[in-house]
Amino acid sequence: MFRAVFYQVGAVFVTAVLSSLFAGWGGAASAGIGGASAIIPNFLFAMRLSLAVRRNKSPSVVGFFVGEAIKVAATIGLLAIAAKLYQGLVWPALLIGLVVALQASFLAFWKKS
Prior knowledge:
Main location: membrane
Subcellular location: Cell membrane
Shape: globular
Pfam families: ATP-synt_I
Keywords: Cell membrane, Membrane, Transmembrane, Transmembrane helix
InterPro entries: ATP_synth_I
Distance between the termini: 13 Å
Strand content: under 5%
Oligomer: single chain
C-alpha cells in the first residue's frame, strides 16, 4: 500500500523538477500541488487500510468503497483549495502533476518486490 505512495512521491518530484525547466518555480510549485492533492488522500487511505488490516485481518468491501469515495472527495477539495489560494497557479503543470501522481501508483503493481 505504501509502496504506491512512495512511487507517487518520486514521480511528482521528477515532474516538478521538469516543470521548473519549462515554467519556472511557479510551474514546479503547481506540479507539486497537483501531485500532493492526490498523494495526501492516498497516504491517508493507505493508513486507514493498514489499521483495518491490523484490527480485523481484512478490510470490508463497504469500508473500502467508502474510503475510496472520501479519497476522491478529498482530492477534489484540495484542488479547489489550491485554485482559490494560490494566485500564481500554472494550470497545465498542476494537471500534469495530478495525472502523474494518479498514474504513478500503477508502478507499484508492475515492479516486483
